[in-house]
Amino acid sequence: MKKRDCLTILYEDEHIIAVNKPSDLAAIPGRGETDSVLERLSRQTGLPCKGQTDPRLRVVHRLDKDTTGVMLFAKHLDAQRKLSHQFQNNTVLKEYVAIVSGQLTDEQGTVDAPIAPHPTQTDRMAVVKKGRPAKTDWKVESRPKRFTVVRVFPKTGKTHQIRVHFAHIGHPLAIDPLYGTDTPLFLSNYKRGYRPARTEQERPLIDRLTLHAHRLGFVHPNGNPLTLEAPYPKDLRATIYQLNKI
Question: Degrees (nearest 5) of the Cα angle 180, 182, 186?
Fold first, then answer.
C-alpha cells in the first residue's frame, strides 16, 4: 500500500479504531466507487472488512464522501452494538467546523426542522413537514467577509443534516454542489489587489465541501468516556486563516 494512501489513525485499541477521514473518499463501498475508507483501512491494518469472524472492521457511522474528520469503526460485534446504540439514540457528542455562505445574524442558534428524501431528486435530502425530526445547534467561530465559520453540533444524525439545515436557513456551505454552489474559493475573489504571479496559475484555497468532523465524544465499549479529535485538513485550515485575514 502506497504511503500517500495510508489513513491517519487517531486512536486504536482491541475494541475500536478511529481515523481522520480525507476528502474525496467514500466512507464505505458503494455504486461507482473504486475505494473507500473501510477498504483502505482494511488493507492498512490487515483486518478483514467482510464476513462474521472477529476481529474485523465493522462500520459504526458514516461521513459524506467529501466531509473530512473523525470516523469510528468497531473491531468486534459487541463493540459495534454498543457504539451503534449510542449513535441511534443521539447520545454521541458530535462537533463539526463549517464555512457557510453569508453572515449569520446571531452568535448562536438552532435549526430544528424535519428532514426526508427530496421528493423529486434522489441524491438529495430536504426539509419536509412530515420528515424525521432533525436538530442542529451552531455557534459562530469567526466572521470573515462574505462567510461565517461556525462550530456545528448536530443533535440527530440524518443524512446530509448539516448541509440541508444551513441551506434551509439561507446559508449553505461555502462549497456544496448539492445544496449550494460548487465554485472553488479563490483568494483573488475576496482579497482586493491580490494577483498571483504571472507565471503561476492561481490555485483555489479550497475546492470541495467546506465541512470537517472535528470532535466525537462517546462511551467506549469498556464503559469509559472518550473524546477524539481530528486536526483540520491543510486546505480548510489555510482557507479559514486567509479569509479571516481579509
Answer: 115
CA distance linking residue 209 with residue 172, whole number of Å: 11
Q: Which domain holds residue 40?
A: 3-245
d(CA 148, CA 231): 20
At 87 the pLDDT is: 97
Q: What is the CATH number of the domain that holds 205?
A: 3.30.2350.10
Burial class (CB in 10 A: 0-12, 13-18, 19+), 238: middle
> Three-class SS of residue 245?
helix
| Contact between 156 and 135 (Cβ < 8 Å) | yes
User: Which residue of the set 5, 64, 66, 123 is catalytic?
Assistant: 64
The yes-or-no answer on residue 64 being catalytic is yes
Query: Is the model's pTM score more than 0.90?
Result: yes
Q: What would the pLDDT profile of 28-40 be if each residue is shown by its tens digit? A: 998 777 899 999 9
The total of structural domains in the chain comes to 1
Model confidence at 46, pLDDT cuts 50, 70, 90, reads: very high
